[in-house]
Write a structure and sequence with these properties.
Layout: H1 2-21, H2 31-39, E1 47-53, E2 61-63, H3 75-87, E3 94-104, E4 107-115, H4 124-136, E5 141-142, E6 146-149, E7 184-192, E8 197-203, E9 214-218, H5 225-229, E10 231-232, E11 240-241, E12 245-246, E13 252-257, H6 264-275, E14 279-280, E15 284-286, E16 296-299, H7 303-312, H8 316-331, H9 336-351, H10 374-385, H11 390-395, E17 416-423, E18 426-434, E19 440-448, H12 456-467
Parallel strand pairs: 4-5, 4-6, 5-14, 6-15, 9-12
Antiparallel strand pairs: 1-2, 1-19, 3-4, 3-16, 7-8, 7-13, 8-9, 10-11, 17-18, 18-19
Helix pairs in contact: 1-9, 2-12, 3-7, 3-8, 8-9
Length: about 475
């Protein structure tokens, strides 16, 4: 009850603050931001901005703040903040495992059953640990099948290429209740000058998939080494590299979404179990987990840790896993429709009319349809600043010039914690900036324009302006 009262109070106060501040906020953009937009040939109306000191009643700058725009990956701020608030930073996913049958002399006379609950952290190392636990329970041979229960999520069938035609980019991998290693392979290229080749290693091992083991070394600069490899992923069982690899590149890693995502779980579990010395007599297939208590359970890292990975590196599939998990826990069904309802209700209860006009799609921002206002994002950040999960949310944001997606930023080094967002026609930043005078500002800036990828200097200029205390333009005298 008190949480609902607090939410409604915050919504009312937030609406009053924004309403009372609109007239007081400067209507002109800082001159350095104007100049950067002009150099990039971007109109002023392509930008929406809010810059406001934390806890202040009025913003230092509000420019088209109420206009709904596509936020790209800034949407992850809403998804992760809502999850931290609703679940708590110590919450974890649980993946139950059953040995369905009897174990004798190293043989499981029955099935190994794994039930997915949406854990986004089941990467190679953690799947290996899961299977290692099975072996510690005395199993070396499975005479039945490996059965995968993926029923916790119900997601419409879509091709990974639907969004932008890039089916092999890991960011386009679709959510799944049992998502193993992001359904992706990592190819590692290690130069061996003595043999004149770069050795190719592949993780995880996939049953029935055989990649080239080496590629010729080439001289010259590193440049676009991936293009130089002339990769051919058209045959999901036979990745090939018909080009060469520049030796000066040293060791490099190339993550690639598997060309046949439907077979990935089957191939990975069969391949990894075999590599670990295990024997599987049956097959790997989908099914239903038993209603009995599991033999053991695998716990994910805490939500606070997962949120850090989502925001630092703008991980789309992890954000979508979290989005659907909220629906599963709050509505009992892990569907996109239920997840949208959960987030829409959370926004409405906390921010009232400020959330009106928002369009929620998939929770990650990898969408052409999502719409939120700079005003709403600023209120989310203001609310987070005074919440019990402030430290988890803020520490999950990339730090300017230091890590994550801001590692190469030209903004003041270490003085900004900002989530970045980018699509073909969207560029944005949102988070917190610490000024030279010790003030902390909430900053939200988003550009929607076909040439949005040229907006980064203007966004950096705005962050720099906030970092010098967001001083107003000096008045000119005759």
């Amino acid at each position: 009850m008190w949480e609902r009262v607090r939410s409604c109070t915050l919504a009312i106060v937030g609406a009053l603050l924004i309403a009372s501040s609109t007239a007081a906020a400067p209507r002109a953009l800082p001159s350095e931001v104007e100049a950067a937009l002009e150099r990039a040939k971007l109109p002023r109306d392509s930008l929406v901005v809010v810059v406001q000191e934390v806890g202040a009643r009025t913003p230092r700058l509000a420019w088209q703040a109420q206009r709904p725009v596509n936020p790209a990956s800034l949407m992850k701020l809403i998804t992760t903040d809502a999850a931290l608030d609703l679940l708590g930073p110590a919450w974890t996913w649980t993946t139950p495992v059953w040995l369905r049958g009897t174990v004798h002399d190293g043989v499981l006379d029955g099935d190994l059953v794994i039930k997915g609950s949406g854990d986004p952290t089941l990467v190679l190392e953690r799947v290996w640990l899961l299977l290692r636990r099975v072996q510690q329970l005395g199993v070396r041979e499975i005479r039945g099948d490996i059965v995968l229960d993926r029923n916790a999520f119900s997601v419409p069938e879509q091709s990974p290429a639907d969004f932008d035609g890039e089916a092999l980019r890991p960011y386009n991998v679709r959510a799944d209740a049992l998502l193993l290693n992001y359904r992706s392979l990592v190819f590692t290229f290690t130069p061996d000058p003595a043999r004149g080749v770069a050795l190719i290693s592949t993780d995880p091992p996939l049953a029935g998939v055989r990649a080239d083991l080496s590629v010729p070394l080439a001289s010259g600069s590193c440049g676009d080494w991936r293009a130089a490899l002339k990769a051919d992923f058209s045959d999901a069982t036979r990745p090939r590299f018909t080009g060469s690899y520049p030796g000066v590149c040293g060791e490099q890693h190339w993550p690639v979404a598997h060309a046949d995502p439907k077979s990935f779980n089957e191939r990975m579990l069969a391949g990894l179990w075999s590599e670990m010395g295990g024997l599987l007599r049956g097959s790997v297939h989908d099914g239903v987990a038993p209603a009995t208590p599991p033999t053991f359970e695998v716990q994910s890292p805490t939500l606070g840790e997962v949120v850090r990975d989502i925001n630092k590196y703008s991980n789309n599939v992890m954000a979508q896993q979290l989005f659907l998990t909220l629906a599963l826990l709050q509505r009992g069904q892990g569907t996109p429709e239920a997840a949208r309802e959960v987030l829409a209700l959370w926004l409405a209860e906390r921010f009232g009319s400020i959330a009106q006009g928002s369009v929620i799609d998939n929770g990650s921002g990898l969408s052409r349809d999502t719409r939120v206002s700079a005003q709403l994002l600023a209120r989310v950040l203001q609310d987070a600043w005074t919440s019990s999960v402030m430290s988890e949310l803020m520490s999950s944001l990339p730090v300017s010039g230091i890590d994550g997606t801001l590692r190469r930023s030209n903004a003041p080094i270490g003085r900004a914690h900002l989530k970045t967002g980018s699509l073909r026609d969207v560029a944005g930043v949102a988070g917190y900036v610490l000024s030279a005078g010790g003030r902390r500002f909430v900053l939200v800036a988003i550009v929607n324009h076909p040439n949005a990828n040229a907006a980064r200097p203007a966004l950096d200029a705005l962050v720099k302006w906030a970092a010098v205390d967001a001083r107003p333009e000096p008045k000119t005298t005759e």
